[in-house]
Amino acid sequence: MQHGEQNGGPTGRITCLPLHSVAIEDQRYRISKGGAADSLRESIGRWGCLTPPVCHQTDGSLVPVTGFRRLQVCRELLGPEGTVEVRVMDSSTPPVDLLSLAVWDTRRDGAVNPFLVCRTVRRALDLGLERELIKGRLLVDLGQEPEDSVMDRHLSLERICGPLAEALESRGVSLRRALRWVSVGDKAGELLAWLAESFRLNGRALQEWGGMLDQVARRDGMSWQQVAERAELVALATEQDRQLDQRAQAAFGRLWALRYPTWQAAKVEAEQRVKRLGLPERVEVSWDERFEEEGFTLSIAVRQPEQLQADLESLLEPERLDRIAKLLEAL
Length: 331
Prior knowledge:
331 residues; 3 domains; 5-stranded mixed sheet
């Protein structure tokens, strides 16, 4: 790391400073999440901090704006007396410009996600920025429409408990899917986050498991914790005799059986009864676990009009209609 100072023009000046002079704990401008990756530690340890973090000169101290992970790694490796090059923005720099820099720096590391937008808007509000400025500048920087509804929908993500929010963000869940969990209580959210970690659930599986927990809990008047106990999910998560994928499959099967009990009990009988319907060969019956709400689907594959007429006449025979009605009554 080189000592000295050079002019940075309107974007600030680059200067070499001891790490203890930077208020790393002050995170008023931080919109990123998580700690430093091993690859960053290795890079800084070998080459130094090649991209100077940006700091804001305010209240007699240097407040980080970008490069929080870089600063943390530098302090780990060099100690508080070590030096690092930083780009210093003077005290006259407007907060919106500083947050815009934070957005630019964070977007270099990956795509914008709903929780990043939420954190940026919250930081801006906490700094006293007007909503019109946030919409017209920061939402646009984040690739969002400058609308009140967009801002408010992202802010509603703050109601999701921390562990679940982290699980959703790390799995790249969309805003539409994330909003589904806004009304989930903290205990339920913590349980779902624990399941996601214990069974290594991806974003789609997390949504599916959470959906089944919620549906069973609502139907049976139970809490999510009680549903998890009935499915013995904790025991499966800590079981040592089977591989993780086998335990996850077993846990999903138990949740699925609780969610669709009629389907579980009637599956074999349904298959046998459908075979006895004696349907025309071009007519197929399909169904899945949702048949409890949606029923069966009958489809006819035809190429000629006369085939369709013949198959419909066959389906509408009183005896066959009676068999179909009895099948539905039985299930």
